[in-house]
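Please predict the structure of the following assembly.
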Amino acid sequence: MSYCLIVDDSAVIRKVAKHIVESFKFETDEAADGSIALAKCREQMPDAVLLDWNMPQMDGIAFIKALRQEKNGDRPKVIFCTTENDTKHISIAMKAGADEFVMKPFDKSILETKFQQVGLLD
Amino acid sequence: MTSEQFNFLRSFLKEQSGLVLGEDKRYLLDSRLNPVAREFGFEDLAQMVVALKRPGSQKLATRITEAMTINESFFFRDMTPFDNFRNTMLPHMLKERAKTRRLRIWSAAASTGQEGYSLAIELLEQKAKIAGWKIEIFGTDLSSEALKKATAGKYSQFEVQRGMPTAMLMKYFKQDGAEWVVEPTVKSMVSFRHFNLLKDYRSMGTFDIVFCRNVLIYFDRDTKSDILNRMAKQMAPDGYLVLGAAETIIGLSNEFEMVSGTRGLYQRRSGVSSKAQPVSALGGARKPVAPSALYSKGRKAS
């Protein structure tokens, strides 16, 4: 079973995302901050990371830059999932190594197509 | 609403648009027509049906038909048709039309334009190969409301995210406040026009590729056959037809053949059989032919 790490400082968003991602037959784990997420990645590298931008300790951009430096850190498909929704933020995220970018609010069909486009789903 | 009123609406819709509304689709009347009833200031659907029966209710009739036939649409819907476009249809057409350098595509249930623009983007992704080509993408739909939106090429954040990969969003759209507008390069490749699929197609000209997805489902069997057979007449002998994921041509038309190794992709039978002819000619040849020649020719034809 594929494994997706959901990184967001909002417990509500994590719950919604978890519910959707599990419907794609993924195992999930959650992290409320980039630093916690990075520690979890060092333990077990996920197949997918759903990543918020603004978080208190380590934000999404700092996390993805650090992740991509890790051993096998190029492996996970990273999908940003944030309220930041302008072209400037999107290109910063893509340049930092994101595979896809979702602007909140999102629903199941948006996440599903993004998962398909990065090759996580058929 | 009484059964009599439901049946009236049902035959009204069949007559206007060919839409076949089963008993099980009764809920659609509520969800789609209540907003129309409100718009026209009626208390409920029953009152609206009464008004619809009066003479001079053309405006209401049009809005009802449009509201019932509008299709939810998103970019690169179902992905497979676009993979087929990129990997099968386009290579074939680029080769076969190399002399005329003309390509005409019909998006026959264009709705709010996402399909047409997705095709334009696919083409622009292969810009070098189509340099100097005259490519036209026609989007038609029954709903003027949908076409208005299609022509504007302006989509909400929610809509663009339904299928548009981020890299392409950045490349082919411009942000305008909370909305995203297709770039002029994309827009100039697609034009939209109001059209009823029950009407005559002869003024449309000839198409190389027809996308007719998720619209036949609304029609009864005879209407489906009729539409497919008349579409075939507007298509090049090797033209491609693309149907929706849940649709099939089986038992409806003999004009098309499924393209093997694909899903939902059909080609005009005339185009397929003209290519297959060398094999049958060979089979009937009087002179003995070396097996290797047979094999290689047979392979080319397949």
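The helical segments of chain A are 11-23, 34-43, 60-69, 87-95, 108-117. Chain A has a mean pLDDT of 96.
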